[in-house]
Amino acid sequence: MQPGISIVDRVRYTSWGVRGVYGVLLLISGLSIDTLVQAVLIRWQRKTWFISPSNLDPLYELGTSLGFWGMLFFCINCVLATRWLWVERLFGGLDVVYRMHAFVGKSTFIMLVLHLMVLIAQALADTDRLVAYLIPGLDLSYTLGMLGLFGLVALVVITLWGSMPYQLWLTSHAWLGVPYLLGGAHALVAQADWYIALLTGIGGVAWIYSIALYRRYAPHARGQIAERTTQHGITELRIALDTPLAAVAGQFVFFAVSKSQAAIPAELHPFSLSAIESPRDVRLSIKMLGDYTRQLDQLAPGDAVTLYGPYGMFGRRMPATQRQLWIAGGIGITPFLSLLQQASHDTEITLVWAVRTRADARYIDELTQRASQRTGISVHLHEGPLSLADIEAYAGPLCTQTQQVLLCAPIPLMRQLRVGLRARGFAAHQIDSEEFGLR
Ligand SMILES: Cc1cc2nc3c(=O)[nH]c(=O)nc-3n(C[C@H](O)[C@H](O)[C@H](O)COP(=O)(O)OP(=O)(O)OC[C@H]3O[C@@H](n4cnc5c(N)ncnc54)[C@H](O)[C@@H]3O)c2cc1C
Question: Model-level pTM greater than 0.85?
Answer without folding.
Answer: yes
